[in-house]
Structure formats: C-alpha cells, structure tokens
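From the methods appendix. Each design record in this collection lists the tokenized structure first, followed by the designed amino acid sequence. Records were kept in a plain field format so they could be parsed without special tools. The example shown here is representative of the layout used throughout.

RECORD:
FOLD TOKENS (261 positions):
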C-alpha cells in the first residue's frame, strides 16, 4: 500500500542524499538500511564492526541502530542529546552526532546502502492499557455485588473436565457458574457456559445457574442464552479499568540498559 508521506531516496549521488537527509532532520523520520560500522568515543570507547543494520532517526532526533536479530539496539541516542549531521567521507555515507552535555561522539559509516527513506510519520494517539480478563475476574471477586446483589464467591478458576470455571458462587437465587469475558460476548462463549452447566448436571447431579458477563451482547447470543435458560450480565470493563496513558516523558532508556555499547 502506497503512502504519500513515505519517500524513498535514490542513494546516488551521495552529495544529494546528504543534502536531503540534513534538510529533513527533525521534521521527518529517516530510515536507512545497509552495511555499516560504528565508533563511539566518550566516557567509554567502543567499535562496532561491519554488519547489516537498520538505522532510524526519529523526528525528536532520537537514534536507534538495530541489527538483523533481537529487540535491543546495538547503539542508540536519546532525543535532543546533541546535533546530528550527515556527510560524505571517502565516498561513503556517514552520520555523526555529538552529545553536547557529555562530549561524546557517535559515528556510523555505511559501506553499502540497501535503502534510504524519509517518512513524515504522524502518531497522535497514546498507548492504552487495560486490565486483562484475569484482572476483571479479580475485580468481580472483590466486588461480587457487580455480579448480583448478595452474591457470594465460593471458588475461582474451578477446574472441570470441560475447562476452568471463572467464578463459582451462590446467591438467593441459588448456585451459579459465572463466565467472564472482556470482549463482546460471542456464540462460542455462550456455548462454553452451556457446557459448564451440563457438566455440573451430569457430575454433581445438581442444577446451577449460568451467568455470562461481557460488555456487550449481540442479539443472537442473547437469543441463545434465553433459549438455554442462561443469563446475561453487562459489565463495562473499560469503566472498571480506565485508560492508562503512556507517559509523555517515556524515554528509550526506560526499556534498555543505560550502558551504550
């Protein structure tokens, strides 16, 4: 799929490439794939021999150099740590950055180029984190009136031959089996609840109620539950677990070791 914000730059001539890259620094995301080596000179000194790598320079001027495997960068620099410059050195593309505060220098030299692109990448959303189903079960166990007024929890994750029951409990209306779903209820969820009820009828020789908890129930699921004398309970889990936004101050070093190889 094409994207008008994505522009691939021909790698020849290099002088034109360098001019373009320096022009878009801080305005667009720069993506360079190729064979390169790196030298880091500062409090510690390190060299990285030639290898196939992928360099990203983001709009905030953070730098990430990845190898062909693994999630941890081979080299990186946090946003706005120092000026970045591209130049041609001995007919090779070179990226140089100086960390002004610590007086450290990182030089990445590409000996072979596979692809150079600039991307006007925009991401206006923030990471949203919700509790998973186990968290929702724990919440309902701690707040059983959310299931039904006067509901008492007897067991959780109760093992049966047809799967683990989320919650087994009791109320004035009798014993109940509760199946908890964080997503909208599906026919498969309703069928699973029916299997639990059939299991208790056949093994414990008792009649138990079946309650399916979900944030929303399609009409066909409601019809199936009614036909099989099963109950639906709407619980809006997003109201229980509000959005946790990604901190705007999140930094790359929060995810990787602070030691720069």
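DESIGN:
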């Amino acid at each position: 799929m094409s994207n008008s914000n994505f522009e691939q730059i021909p790698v020849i001539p290099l002088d034109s490439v360098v001019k373009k890259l320096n022009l878009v620094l801080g305005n667009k995301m720069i993506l360079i794939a190729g064979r390169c080596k790196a030298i880091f000179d500062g409090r510690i000194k390190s060299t990285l021999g030639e290898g196939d790598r992928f360099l990203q320079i983001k709009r905030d001027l953070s730098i990430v150099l990845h190898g062909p495997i693994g999630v941890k960068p081979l080299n990186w620099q946090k946003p706005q740590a120092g000026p970045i410059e591209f130049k041609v050195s001995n007919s090779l593309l070179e990226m140089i950055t100086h960390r002004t505060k610590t007086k450290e220098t990182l030089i990445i030299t590409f000996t072979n180029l596979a692809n150079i692109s600039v991307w006007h990448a925009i991401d206006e959303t923030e990471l949203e984190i919700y509790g998973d189903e186990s968290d929702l079960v724990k919440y309902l166990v701690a707040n059983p009136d959310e299931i039904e007024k006067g509901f008492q929890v007897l067991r959780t994750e109760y093992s049966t031959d047809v799967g683990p029951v989320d919650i087994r409990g009791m109320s004035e209306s009798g014993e109940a089996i509760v199946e908890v779903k964080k997503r909208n209820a599906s026919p498969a969820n309703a069928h699973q609840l029916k299997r639990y009820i059939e299991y208790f009828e056949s093994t414990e020789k008792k009649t138990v109620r079946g309650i399916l908890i979900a944030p929303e129930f399609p009409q066909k699921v409601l019809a199936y539950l009614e036909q099989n004398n099963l109950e639906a309970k709407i619980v809006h889990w997003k109201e229980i677990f509000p959005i946790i936004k990604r901190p705007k101050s999140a930094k790359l070093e929060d995810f990787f070791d602070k030691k720069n190889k």
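APPENDIX NOTE: The radius of gyration is 29 Å.
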